Please model this.
Amino acid sequence: MIPIECIMRKTTIRVRKMYNDVDIRYIRQDEIQKLLDLYKHLHKDDPELNVDSINSLWEQICNDKNMHYIVAEKDAQLVASCVLVIVPNLTRNARPYGLIENVVTHNDFRRKGYGTKVLRKALNIAWEHNCYKVMLLTGSKQEGTLKFYENAGFKMGVKTGFIATP
Model:
Protein backbone atom coordinates (compact mmCIF):
# COMPACT_ATOMS: atom_id res chain seq x y z
CA MET A 1 0.00 0.00 0.00
CA ILE A 2 1.27 3.46 -0.89
CA PRO A 3 1.53 5.88 2.04
CA ILE A 4 -0.56 9.04 1.84
CA GLU A 5 2.54 11.18 2.41
CA CYS A 6 5.13 10.84 -0.31
CA ILE A 7 7.79 10.10 2.27
CA MET A 8 6.51 9.37 5.77
CA ARG A 9 9.58 10.86 7.49
CA LYS A 10 8.74 14.28 6.12
CA THR A 11 7.03 16.78 8.38
CA THR A 12 4.80 19.79 8.03
CA ILE A 13 5.77 23.23 9.26
CA ARG A 14 3.34 26.09 9.84
CA VAL A 15 4.33 29.51 8.54
CA ARG A 16 2.35 32.69 9.24
CA LYS A 17 2.88 36.09 7.71
CA MET A 18 0.64 38.82 9.03
CA TYR A 19 -2.93 37.64 8.51
CA ASN A 20 -2.05 35.32 5.62
CA ASP A 21 -2.02 31.74 6.84
CA VAL A 22 -0.11 29.24 4.69
CA ASP A 23 1.31 25.75 5.26
CA ILE A 24 4.77 25.03 3.84
CA ARG A 25 5.12 21.27 3.69
CA TYR A 26 5.86 18.18 1.64
CA ILE A 27 3.26 17.27 -0.92
CA ARG A 28 0.90 14.40 -0.17
CA GLN A 29 0.62 11.63 -2.72
CA ASP A 30 -3.10 12.27 -3.18
CA GLU A 31 -2.42 15.87 -4.30
CA ILE A 32 -1.07 15.05 -7.75
CA GLN A 33 -4.01 16.70 -9.54
CA LYS A 34 -3.59 19.87 -7.46
CA LEU A 35 0.10 19.92 -8.41
CA LEU A 36 -0.68 19.47 -12.10
CA ASP A 37 -3.19 22.33 -11.85
CA LEU A 38 -0.50 24.54 -10.28
CA TYR A 39 1.98 23.58 -13.02
CA LYS A 40 -0.35 25.23 -15.55
CA HIS A 41 1.06 28.50 -14.15
CA LEU A 42 4.63 27.38 -14.89
CA HIS A 43 4.59 26.32 -18.55
CA LYS A 44 1.34 27.29 -20.20
CA ASP A 45 2.24 25.42 -23.41
CA ASP A 46 2.92 22.07 -21.74
CA PRO A 47 0.49 19.32 -22.73
CA GLU A 48 -2.04 18.46 -20.04
CA LEU A 49 -1.21 15.23 -18.22
CA ASN A 50 -3.80 12.67 -17.22
CA VAL A 51 -3.34 11.52 -13.61
CA ASP A 52 -4.19 7.92 -14.48
CA SER A 53 -1.45 7.80 -17.12
CA ILE A 54 1.26 9.00 -14.72
CA ASN A 55 0.35 7.06 -11.57
CA SER A 56 3.39 4.76 -11.75
CA LEU A 57 5.72 7.71 -12.37
CA TRP A 58 4.18 9.62 -9.44
CA GLU A 59 4.56 6.57 -7.20
CA GLN A 60 8.21 6.28 -8.22
CA ILE A 61 8.77 9.97 -7.44
CA CYS A 62 7.03 9.69 -4.08
CA ASN A 63 9.14 6.70 -3.08
CA ASP A 64 12.45 8.32 -4.02
CA LYS A 65 14.09 9.55 -0.80
CA ASN A 66 16.13 12.10 -2.77
CA MET A 67 13.09 13.83 -4.29
CA HIS A 68 11.50 16.55 -2.18
CA TYR A 69 8.32 18.20 -3.47
CA ILE A 70 7.64 21.22 -1.29
CA VAL A 71 4.32 23.05 -1.50
CA ALA A 72 2.62 26.10 -0.05
CA GLU A 73 -1.03 25.45 0.76
CA LYS A 74 -3.52 28.22 1.43
CA ASP A 75 -7.22 27.57 1.95
CA ALA A 76 -6.91 23.97 0.67
CA GLN A 77 -5.24 25.13 -2.57
CA LEU A 78 -1.62 24.59 -3.62
CA VAL A 79 -0.36 28.10 -4.37
CA ALA A 80 3.41 27.55 -4.75
CA SER A 81 5.81 24.67 -5.16
CA CYS A 82 9.35 23.64 -5.97
CA VAL A 83 11.23 20.39 -6.33
CA LEU A 84 14.53 19.71 -4.57
CA VAL A 85 16.59 16.76 -5.75
CA ILE A 86 19.46 15.70 -3.52
CA VAL A 87 22.27 14.09 -5.51
CA PRO A 88 24.71 11.72 -3.77
CA ASN A 89 28.27 12.68 -4.60
CA LEU A 90 31.84 11.39 -4.35
CA THR A 91 33.54 14.79 -4.26
CA ARG A 92 33.50 17.49 -1.58
CA ASN A 93 34.17 14.91 1.12
CA ALA A 94 31.30 12.77 -0.22
CA ARG A 95 28.78 15.52 0.50
CA PRO A 96 25.67 15.63 -1.70
CA TYR A 97 24.46 18.64 -3.64
CA GLY A 98 20.97 19.83 -4.42
CA LEU A 99 19.15 20.86 -7.56
CA ILE A 100 15.95 22.90 -7.50
CA GLU A 101 13.52 22.80 -10.40
CA ASN A 102 9.91 23.61 -11.24
CA VAL A 103 9.61 26.69 -9.05
CA VAL A 104 6.08 27.98 -9.50
CA THR A 105 3.60 30.27 -7.78
CA HIS A 106 -0.05 30.50 -8.86
CA ASN A 107 -0.61 33.77 -10.73
CA ASP A 108 -3.22 34.92 -8.19
CA PHE A 109 -0.82 34.44 -5.26
CA ARG A 110 2.40 36.05 -6.51
CA ARG A 111 4.25 38.72 -4.54
CA LYS A 112 2.98 37.39 -1.21
CA GLY A 113 6.15 35.53 -0.18
CA TYR A 114 4.90 31.98 -0.81
CA GLY A 115 7.49 31.17 -3.48
CA THR A 116 10.27 32.47 -1.24
CA LYS A 117 9.01 30.33 1.62
CA VAL A 118 9.04 27.09 -0.41
CA LEU A 119 12.55 27.89 -1.68
CA ARG A 120 13.83 28.59 1.83
CA LYS A 121 12.28 25.34 3.04
CA ALA A 122 14.04 23.52 0.19
CA LEU A 123 17.35 25.12 1.18
CA ASN A 124 16.82 24.12 4.83
CA ILE A 125 16.17 20.52 3.78
CA ALA A 126 19.33 20.55 1.65
CA TRP A 127 21.42 21.88 4.54
CA GLU A 128 19.91 19.25 6.87
CA HIS A 129 21.08 16.63 4.35
CA ASN A 130 24.60 18.13 4.45
CA CYS A 131 24.52 19.41 0.86
CA TYR A 132 27.54 21.57 0.10
CA LYS A 133 25.59 23.62 -2.46
CA VAL A 134 22.19 23.94 -4.10
CA MET A 135 21.86 24.96 -7.73
CA LEU A 136 18.91 26.51 -9.51
CA LEU A 137 18.56 27.59 -13.13
CA THR A 138 16.04 30.03 -14.52
CA GLY A 139 15.24 30.81 -18.12
CA SER A 140 14.00 34.25 -17.11
CA LYS A 141 16.01 37.38 -17.79
CA GLN A 142 13.50 39.60 -15.97
CA GLU A 143 15.10 41.64 -13.21
CA GLY A 144 12.18 40.95 -10.84
CA THR A 145 12.57 37.19 -11.22
CA LEU A 146 16.33 37.35 -10.70
CA LYS A 147 15.84 39.50 -7.57
CA PHE A 148 13.26 36.97 -6.33
CA TYR A 149 15.88 34.20 -6.44
CA GLU A 150 18.55 36.40 -4.85
CA ASN A 151 16.16 37.35 -2.04
CA ALA A 152 15.47 33.65 -1.45
CA GLY A 153 19.18 33.02 -0.84
CA PHE A 154 20.72 32.30 -4.26
CA LYS A 155 23.73 34.08 -5.78
CA MET A 156 23.92 34.90 -9.45
CA GLY A 157 27.17 34.62 -11.41
CA VAL A 158 28.99 32.13 -9.16
CA LYS A 159 29.04 29.48 -11.90
CA THR A 160 28.07 29.35 -15.55
CA GLY A 161 25.18 27.09 -16.50
CA PHE A 162 24.79 25.19 -19.75
CA ILE A 163 21.77 23.33 -21.06
CA ALA A 164 21.68 20.52 -23.62
CA THR A 165 18.40 19.34 -25.12
CA PRO A 166 17.68 16.40 -27.43
